[in-house]
Specification:
- 22% of the residues lie in helices and 36% in strands.
- It is an alpha+beta fold and 366 residues long.
- The strands form two sheets. Strands 4, 5, 6, 7, 8, 9, 10, 11, 12, 13, 14 and 15 form a twelve-stranded mixed β-sheet that branches. Strands 1-2-3 form a three-stranded antiparallel β-sheet, with no helix packed on it.
- A hairpin with a 6-residue loop joins strand 5 and strand 6.
- Helix 2 runs antiparallel to helix 3.
- The relative contact order is 0.20.
Length: 366
């Protein structure tokens, strides 16, 4: 695991103001004088973001292996949705990125956790992400105008979301049946009373069993419950080949959510993801024209994991007492989100269609 090191405020060497990570340059940038400097990294880039033994981690007791995201990070708990986010001063808590509620709890020193191993630095600047969100909302015909105005006024915030990445070797034994098609000639009488023939497909089933093995690499599981997993999956792909060894400097000017899914629970979800691929492998191994899988039993070995922080720009908007989220992949600009439907706009469209139909009918009568 990364060693815990002393943190300093990311102060500008030119004017002593606070610096933050700049997505456009990939460097630290002073928000006042514009001075830039490279992010100081502890591990060489060629070393990559190394995984850790899953078994060793889950068997550890106590808290000596845990540490906060940094020594100076502050942490707040949203009483509205339960999300916990960390940030570095002078960044402030403000509104919750996930539900839009005002953060009323006082910030405290960040609690220890399984430290992040890697971070995918923000690449899409906020202005561009905001533009993508506005275009996305504008393309939704039935979105209420009030929501579009709200999105423009309140904007979005940058958040690093927690993910678990799992590697595993699998060995699966299975029992099933292989179906092979054969055809028989069937005679029938058509509507004209004539005798006709056709080929009818049948299936013979044979018992099948065997073992298959596969290595899984980087099975990515969201460790957040504050956003829709379906929408997160649609934000993919994540260019994990651009991962950097975790450094708190990447969080300067952004927030980072604490994981809500613990490491063992994440692996159970990863097993479900792997099972879908394993099922396909079993069907291919059974062969034939059709397959029936009666049972499978999978052993997992050499399980490794990484705790990763992946970036999104996210906004939460309340409309008619319901919260809607819009997210932007802060690496690619892909937008996913929810939006309400304007009942008034839908009624107007229906009335317009009815009126158009009536006009056409009148013209046709003439």
């Amino acid at each position: 695991m990364p060693e815990k090191k002393e943190m300093e405020r990311f102060l500008c060497p030119s004017c002593s103001a606070d610096m933050e990570f700049d997505p456009e340059s990939g460097e630290m940038k002073c928000r006042y004088c514009g001075h830039k400097q490279a992010v100081a990294v502890a591990a060489p880039a060629e070393a990559g973001v190394q995984p850790h033994s899953f078994a060793e981690m889950v068997n550890l007791t106590g808290t000596s292996h845990l540490q906060p995201v940094s020594d100076q990070a502050l942490e707040v708990h949203c009483t509205g949705c339960g999300a916990v986010v960390a940030f570095h001063p002078p960044e402030v808590a403000g509104a919750c990125s996930f539900c839009g509620a005002a953060i009323v709890t006082e910030p405290k020193a960040a609690d220890p956790l399984i430290a992040p191993d890697g971070v995918l630095p923000v690449k899409v600047p906020k202005a561009l992400a905001q533009k993508e969100v506005q275009q996305w909302l504008a393309s939704r015909w039935f979105a209420p105008n009030a929501l579009k105005k709200l999105a423009h006024q309140e904007g979005i915030g940058g958040v690093y979301l927690p993910f678990w990445s799992y590697d595993s070797d699998t060995d699966t034994s299975y029992r099933g049946e292989r179906g092979e098609h054969y055809y028989e000639t069937e005679w029938y009488t058509d509507s004209d009373g004539k005798q006709q023939s056709r080929q009818v497909q049948h299936t013979r089933w044979y018992p099948a069993s065997g073992r298959i093995a596969r290595h899984f690499d980087d099975v990515l599981i969201p460790a957040t419950r504050s956003v829709s997993e379906t929408r997160l999956n649609k934000l993919q792909p994540w260019d994990l080949n651009a991962l950097c060894t975790y450094e708190p400097a990447y969080l300067a000017g952004f927030k980072a959510q604490r994981y809500q899914v613990e490491l063992p629970a994440g692996f159970e979800t990863a097993k479900q993801v792997m099972e879908r691929t394993i099922q396909g492998d079993v069907r291919a191994d059974i062969g034939g024209d059709e397959q029936r899988i009666l049972s499978t039993e999978t052993d997992y070995s050499n399980v490794m994991f990484r705790h990763l922080l992946l970036p999104v720009w996210i906004g939460a908007y309340k409309f008619q007492n319901k919260v809607y989220q819009v997210m932007v992949n802060a690496r690619t600009g892909e937008v996913q989100g929810e939006r309400p439907y304007s009942t008034g706009k839908i009624i107007l469209l229906v009335l317009f269609i009815i009126a158009l139909i009536l006009v056409i009918a009148v013209l046709n009568q003439k």
